[in-house]
Design goal:
alpha/beta; 13-stranded parallel β-sheet; two-stranded parallel ribbon; 7 helices
Amino acid sequence: CLRSLDLSWNKIQRFPRGIEDLKSLTVLELAGNDLRRLPDTFGGLSSLQVLNLARNDLLEVPASISGLVSLVRLDVSQNRVLRLPTEIGELQLLQVLDVSRNRLRAIPSRIGLLRNLIVFDAHSNNISRLPDEIGALAKLERLNLTHNEIAGRLPSTIGSLRELRRVSLAHNKIEALPASIGAVHKLAFLDLCQNQVGELPSSMGCMRCLEVLLLSCNRLTDLPPSIGSLATCLRELDLSSNLLKLLPAAIGELSQLKRLDLHHNQLAALPAELGKLVPQLEQFRATHNPLSTLPPKFANDTRVRDQSQMLWSGYSDGQVAEWLIDVADVFPICRDAILFGDEEESEQEKKPPQSLRSFVFQVQSKLEEQGLWRETLEPLVHDFFFRARVLGDIPQLDSLQGMNAKRRAMRLAARDAERAEITKLVHEQEEDLRERLRSCYQVGKQKLVFTEARLMERGNRFREQRRQQERAALIEAGKACFARQEAIARDRDERRRLDRESSIGAWKEHFVKEREEFLEEFKREFNFKDLADDHDRAVMF
């Protein structure tokens, strides 16, 4: 009996007849054809374990796929599928699901029923959010959702994926990570490039297996101090093209780090602890940062072949690394010498050196004892002495004043405490959601469908009640607005009437007064008392 059938790359447009009768078929390869739909009888292949439908022209996956109860691997990548059927949750043995390069807008919530799923690849789609039920994929090891439209915060249930080892979420619109992500202890690879992440949760310090952390092209302004907890595992850290202004001192604790990328940020200084880390790095990039602590230099150094790898201040990555190593060796000894003088002198005779020559001799002798002195360090020693003695400024590699560092430490402690409370709340919510998911997935199919229908009915009823309340509130607000407008109109008409009456009365008084004054003046001008006694004057009048 036939167990494996390969019909790939044959430009097949219709599903071949008779295949559904091959009850013993375990592998079916149909990749690279022109299939547009699958028949409803397709689900009769109950023994099928591997189904490859990649590079076809499918618009949907039929609901009859639920009949493939033995399916272990399903590949429908590079098609035109708009949605996945809810019946996909009945493929209980499915381990690999590849739906990449399609037109999916959402992931069905019943994907949480795939308890044996190990690999889930849905990159290059139009997915806008992840369902909370994704936390029920207890055996998931690889999750690829790059090049989608996922926005906002990832669901907190992602912390339930305890077997997860590789996560790719690059090229999305993710703004924040849940605190529960720190519970994914086996995660070794995390790619969040080309997103909108503004800060990292402090719980990431609990990810003790994380080897690669890619965070380029985001909106990070700082890093949590807990990143130093990844000292025994982290090997590659990409922080390029962010808004970083300061690095925590804990970054110097990453003893296994081999690649560190800091280019295109806003770093004005680097922590002193980084100087001990640079010698072990295989790749170090710090170009395009306004590093103000480096000595001024023009960007036309002929020793640097690639001018595109120059810093704004004119230094290349290799020169920055060399400068960091030198400064990490020199500055601590120079600081002790400028503040406390020679340790071999007595307490009464101990005093800081007053001349450049004695200062250089003292620092050189201490470095020679440790086997660290070299001629290239002498300009740094001279610069330190000049700035400390002439300018009154004791140089620090990270350019942080003590008070500012203390205030920042207090702010970070307060923020960590707040995040700890939020983490506790998130864990409680996660446990509650896990219990609800567990109780939901333990019921039968008939009861699950009934519960889903009841929830939809309750949601519709709630939305209708809310619409009615909003409509009633709008009507009440309209009535109140109409009443206010009527009162304003009545007040306006009353004021106009009173103004008109007062204006008419004033004019009447004015005309009466003018008439009386005219008559008095007329009488005085013609010198008579009674106009009726003189007929001619009366006529003239």
